[in-house]
Amino acid sequence: MARLLDVRALHAHYGATEVLHGLDFAVDEGAITTILGANGAGKTTTLRAVCGMVKTQGEIHFGGQRIDARATESIVRLGVAHVPDGRGTFVNLSVEENLRLGAYTRRGKAEIAADFDRIYGYFPLLKERRRQQAGTLSGGEQQMLAVSRALMLRPRLLLLDEPSFGLAPLIVQELFAILGDINRSEGMSMLLVEQNAALALKLAQQAYLLETGRVVIAGTAESIRNDEAIRRSYLGY
Ligand SMILES: Nc1ncnc2c1ncn2[C@@H]1O[C@H](COP(=O)(O)OP(=O)(O)OP(=O)(O)O)[C@@H](O)[C@H]1O
Ligand SMILES: [Mg+2]
């Protein structure tokens, strides 16, 4: 399978402090990769590095192009959409207005209109609440809106930062089932950062475990899921 995202020897800094110490990882075209790790391991920083939001060294290739020196805006235009931690919806705008903003890099009114239908197909609840202010949605609905807004870009790669965070188990299951559905039906590649290892390993094909800015385990999700020693010592389930 061709690599869509290929990251080599990635270092990242906040000021003088280095927090990623040379990561290698990849996302195959049409596949889901997960990056697992405890609080502070560097998961959020890794996603921010891919989007050009932190200072990095090393190489980031996306769709065959070097993107590590590009500005965030240009990375977005190449087809990378980021669902940040804490969701980042515009709380004072309606559901519909949030979705419209998600399509800001695109032209073509008919296509954008079709995308509203596509997204409301995945998330019928958002259609019911399309005129409601985003800030008044439940946590689960807000996460669905954040994912939907990213989908409005029609990205080639969706970056997801702990989408399960703070949500009830049933809502998380529903959200992950929809992500799996989108991946299969649209062939959309995803890089999923999670602390919920059990769930992420079910959705993803490839997995990396981060510890204080280093990859300590890499392999297929299946091999890691089936390795009891890894599960016990690193994943806590
Ligand atoms: N803006 C910042 N300035 C300085 N240090 C930062 C900044 N953001 C993160 N860090 C540090 O970088 C390291 C990695 O943080 P990061 O947020 O990437 O971890 P994480 O794996 O996403 O953690 P969590 O699971 O808690 O979200 C931590 O030690 C953190 O304190
Ligand atoms: Mg984080």
Outline the structure in words.
Helix 3 runs parallel beside helix 6. The protein has 237 residues and is an alpha/beta fold. It folds into two domains: 3-79 and 156-235, Rossmann fold (3-Layer(aba) Sandwich), CATH 3.40.50; 91-154, no CATH class. The chain has helices at residues 43-50, 72-78, 95-102, 109-122, 124-128, 139-151, 169-186, 197-203, 221-225, 228-235; strands spanning 3-14, 17-28, 32-37, 55-62, 65-66, 80-83, 157-161, 189-194, 206-211, 214-220. The chain contains ten helices and ten strands. The strands form two sheets. A six-stranded mixed beta sheet has the order 6-7-8-3-9-10, sandwiched between helices. It has a four-stranded antiparallel beta sheet with strand order 2-1-4-5, covered by helices on one side. Helices cover 39% and strands 29% of the residues. The structure holds adenosine-5'-triphosphate and magnesium ion (MG). Adenosine-5'-triphosphate is lined by residues 14, 17, 19, 37, 39-45, 85, 195.
